Amino acid sequence: MPLDLRISEWIALGFFLYLAAAALLMRLPADRKRRVLTRAILISAFILAIALPSGSAAARARDWLPLIYLPLGYWLPAHLVKCTNPRLEGMLLEFDRRLFGANGLARFANRAPRLLIELLELAYLFCYPVVPLGFIWLVLGGFPEEGDRFWTAVLLAGFCCYGLLPWLPARAPRAIEETPPCIRSSIRVLNLRLLDRASVQLNTFPSGHVAASFAAALAVGAHLWPAGAVLGVIALGIALGSIVGRYHYAADAIAGAAVALMAFALSAVLT
Questions:
Q1: 45 assigned to some structural domain
Q2: Closest C-alpha to 201, from 70, 75, 92
Q3: CA-CA distance, 215 to 221, in Å (whole number)?
Q4: Measured distance CA(172)–CA(270) in Å, rounded
Q5: What is the span of the domain harbouring residue 200?
Q6: Is residue 261 part of a domain?
Q7: How many angstroms separate the CA atoms of 129 and 114, rounded?
Q8: Is 86 buried (19+), middle (13-18) or exposed (0-12) by CB count in 10 A?
Q9: Residue 1 has pLDDT above 60, yes or no
Q10: Do the domain assignments include residue 191?
Q11: pTM metric for this prediction
Q12: Residues 138-156: pLDDT tens digits?
């Protein structure tokens, strides 16, 4: 029976097979190697199975399945990380110091109006709903046929970031800075709780949140420019909030935005 894989599904399939190959090649404890291999192969088999010819209900489900592939693609590479890279962490911190000065971000966070800090923390919180919001906006705006191109851009952007985690492992700046900012924000409490429960406690370079959010904004904006502009403002807020809140280094956010541009450009060529 012939397969009918969408471009976004080919990207997801290639990514999880890449993780399986990495698990085979890397020197890892046997239980971690087995965990990554088993999960990557099961997810890959599911992607192939769902692509078999089927009814309209299965086709509609496939429209939303990338929302599952994306977080799975974030969590699984963390099992391939053996230890963090202090040299990389030092380079990322040094880049921040050159941009903002020694303790410049901490001073800003401590002295900035609380309303501004709350808005930046709220913007960072939107890193979770911004991608599904973009897809819903595209469908309701009359462009459901552009779903594969949307997911191609978003998955390319996110997986490019998550796939580098085993090779560029680092801790988030808030975990290692000598003088972390004393941020007065009730929304930050929620952000930290979510990260404690859902994060792999590692820094992704480039930032997957920034990359996926900008990619979603660009993909929607190509057809609905007002919606794309709104999502672009949210994506910019996510980037700024991630830096000020020390969820990410500045280089993560800058590189994430660049990855999003590349992924969007590739999605136009591939789909």
A1: no
A2: 75
A3: 10
A4: 34
A5: 84-270
A6: yes
A7: 24
A8: exposed
A9: no
A10: yes
A11: 0.94
A12: 999 999 999 999 999 999 9
Top-ranked range on mean pLDDT: pick from 23-32, 70-79, 172-181: 70-79
Class of residue 142 by CB neighbours under 10 A (exposed 0-12, middle 13-18, buried 19+): exposed
Query: Which amino acid, residue 17?
Result: L
- Domain count across the chain: 1
What is the SS3 assignment for the chain? CCCCCCHHHHHHHHHHHHHHHHHHHCCCCHHHHHHHHHHHHHHHHHHHHHCCCCCHHHHHHHHHCHHHHHHHHHHHHHHHCCCCCHHHHHHHHHHHHHHHCCCHHHHHHHHCCHHHHHHHHHHHHCCCCHHHHHHHHHHHCCCHHHHHHHHHHHHHHHHHHHCCCCCCCECCHHHHCCCCCCCCCHHHHHHHHHHHHHCCCCECCCCHHHHHHHHHHHHHHCCCHHHHHHHHHHHHHHHHHHHHCCCCCHHHHHHHHHHHHHHHHHHHHHC
CA distance 178 to 190: 23
Residue 195 lies in a domain: yes
Provide the token pair at 102.
Answer: 């020694």
The total number of residues written for the chain in this structure: 271
Flag whether pLDDT at 223 surpasses 70.
Answer: yes
Pull the structure tokens for residue 216.
Answer: 């979603």
pLDDT of 54 reads: 66
Predicted local distance difference test score (pLDDT) of residue 56: 67
Cα Rg of the chain, angstroms: 19
Which residues, other chains included, contact 48 with Cβ-Cβ below 8 Å and sequence gap of 6+?
3, 5, 13
